[in-house]
Each structure stands twice: as structure tokens, then as C-alpha cells.
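Notebook p. 47: complex prediction with iron/sulfur cluster.
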Amino acid sequence: MNADSSLVGEDNRRYGLLPFRFRRINDIQYILVNEAGQFITLEFDQLRRLIDFDFDTSSSEYLDLLGRHFIYEDHPALAIELLSAITRTRNAHLPEQAGLHIFVVTLRCTNQCKYCQVTQRERSDRTSDMSRDTADLAIDFMFQTPSKLLKVEYQGGEAVLNFDLVRYITETCEQRAQGTDRVVEFVLCTNLVEFTEEHAQYCRDHRIAISTSLDGPKSIHDDHRCNTHESVLEGISTAREFVGPDRVSALMTPTATSLKRVKDIVDEYLRRGFRSIFLRPLNPYGGAAGPNELGFSIEEWVDFYRTGLDYIIGLNRSGIEFREEYTAILLRRILRTTSPGFVDLQNPTGAGLAVLTYHFDGSVYLSDESRMLAEMGDDRFKLVDLRETTSFPDAITDGDYVDLLKDSMLEASPMCSDCAYAVYCGSDPIGHYREQGDIIGHKAFSDHCRRHLAVFDHLFKLLESDDRHILYRWIADER
Ligand code: SF4
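Predicted complex, C-alpha cells below:
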């Protein structure tokens, strides 16, 4: 909805409309969202009256509409300026390009997980180990990016199998950052199977956080991940002892077989001392590229998410503090004026802007998904090869990349440009390319879009319910 005319209300107060979009969320209510991400819920008759300049100007909703910049009474230029200021704050993170840097230090692995998204190598095959020379080139490239906070994430394969290089990169980055205004944080993504006290001590001494995989109770995890439930639990306990409980996190990956057991999965996270879970979808790359027995439809995933979220909210109602992380990310986007910086949900795309992936061989990809796509034979989203180009400014101003950024902007994307949720959503050019062969993608057939429409619809219903206080609590201590 875009309009700016000004007419007379019932008690002669005059108002004009500022730009907003709207969507029906149930039989009687519509959610209205403006460019600054502020929202308000109205019934259909109120919405019609608002647009017809016939709104009850003595109502509390009228004052809400005024205060949240959906309408103005005087000075349209000032109203637009205020709206623009909030919009600028929401997008203040954009110049802080490429905060997350994924180093694929080896493709060797101890496991052969069902849904593995890389072509893992035998543990004795060192041909996929990143060399120190390549690591030096990648570190140089990373330090050319403008972000003050650089987050280095070690991935594989199994990163612990090339731990000497993890040490080398960590210490080189620490030295490079010394005496500068750059801060470098580290995360080790590991299946924990061969994670020892020695690794844990190093992670403690260099403040490396640990991220692992826990797919659920033993029966689910062992089925997905090569009977490693026991060793993961041991590894979690070692990591917590040395690195600290708050610096050890786990991710779960659902498959068609575990999708119906979301309560069991949540219970396992509770039992193992986690205070949150991320109910994420399965990335359809590598072993998970369908059709196969692992995959599921978006509708099945949405059912899994809603059931899990309802269960978690029920736990909170009974006094157990536990959070669903994806919901918390989306709530921050909805309820905060600053972006939570979640790389998978950025507009324009976070691929390249928020994340870069350094493959073991010196290829730099726009994201982890771009790297996985390359593993499947398509390197369209390779930004540079460090053996040929080492300049970040040259790479990032390349025409193809700039075109990708432009095409990823939701404001100019069919369906998104009219969508009430565009200001909270993000673009997924790589997912659309994989799914439809086109980076913009037809949103009516897009998994990304169907998933987010369903999730946002559900969240706005929850924000209208008595449970909203539980959701507010999940982000209450974060600004
Ligand atoms: S991808 Fe779908 S949910 Fe997201 S902004 Fe576009 S139309 Fe809306």
C-alpha cells in the first residue's frame, strides 16, 4: 500500500497515509507493516476505513497508527524523515560487510552422516587439507573486508582432523588483530568424535566457541550420524568443562524420519542441559539433495516447527525456561530496530555481504551453500580463486556480484515488493537458483518463501495471544 493523500476524518482531524503493506493473518485481522518494520493489527473494517480516510480519529488505534508512522497529520516531509531515520537504523549493519568467515580446513571426516553436504574424504587422504599458504591468502583477504568484528568459523569435513591449521589460523589472526580496532572471534564446528582434552584446552585458552551436532535422542542421532551419540555427549561434557557451558552450542538437522519426533528432540536438548534449540530445515545439498528418504515438504517442516514451538511455549508456561532460536531471530527482526545480523536472512542477500567461505583449495565462495553447490558441480557463486586474485575490493565490485546483489533486493522482487513481511524477510538467491535455476525465483513455488510466509503468519498470531509475553522474554535481555 503506498499513498500520501490527506482527507478529513470524522472529527475533522486530517490525516495522510505513509507507505505500508498488509496481509490477512486470520478470519478477521490484518497485519500492517511499514518500511521501518513497525506493525499494527487491524480488523478488516478498520483497514478499509483507514484507506478510505474514514478512520475513527478518536480511537486508541488512531493514536497507535500515528505513533508508529502509518499516518501523519501535519508535515509529511517530517513524517517521511522520521520513518527514514528508523529504516536507516535497521540497515546500519550493511556497511559492516562480511563479518562471518568460514574456513573449510579439510574435507576429511570421521563420519559418513546420511545427509552430509560435502564430499568427505578418507581420514588418511590429506589432499583436501587447506595448506598454510592458502590460509595466509585467506587471512589476508579477510582482513581487507571492512567489518570490525570478524568471526572465523572452522568447518570441514571434520575440522579437528586438521587442528594444526586451526591453531595456525587462530594465532595468525590474533597477531594480525593486535593493536588494531579489529576483534576476531572463533568458532570450531566439530562432530566431537575425536575432540580431546588437549583440543578443549586450546579452545579455552584462545576463546574458541564450540558448535556441534546433536540430532536428538540416541535412536535418531545414531541413525543420522553413524552411531556417534555417546561420543558426542562425552565431547559436549569435555567442551563444557574447559570452554564453559555457554560457549558450547549444538545444532539439529531433521530428516523425514525424525520430523514427527520433535518433542523427543526438544526433550533430549533439555536433558543434556541446553537452554535452547534451533528447529531448522534440512539444507538440500550433498546427501540431502532430493528426492530421497531424507527429504520432506515445506508443509511437513512447518508442521514440525509449529508443533515444536507450541511444545516449547508450553514448557515455558510451566516454568521451564527454554527458547527456540529461529523464533528468537525472527522476533528480533520484528520487534527490534537493529538487525540481528543472521546471515541467512538478509536483504540484499547476506551471501558475500555477511559471509564468505574459504575452501581448502583457495576458492572463495559467497556462502556455505555456494560451496556446497560447487561440490555438486556448479561453481556459479565462486567469488574468486585466491591463487589468481587476492584483492577484496576488486572481487566485491565485480559486475556479476553487484548484479547478484541488485537482483536479491526484495523491494524490487516480484511478490516480495508487495509482501507485508518483506522488511523482516531475507532473500535467498542461491536457494532459488538451485531450486528454479533463477536467482530471483518465482516466490509462489519457492521453499524459502512458503516457509517464511507460514512462520511469520504463525508468529504474528502468537504475538496477538497471551503467550506473547513468553516470546518477549526470549529477547528481553538483548538490545
Ligand atoms: S520471500 Fe516470500 S515471505 Fe519473504 S518477502 Fe518475499 S514474498 Fe514475503
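Notes: Residues 298-317 form the longest helix (20 residues). The two ends are 30 Å apart (CA to CA).
Next step: compare against the earlier run before touching the bench.
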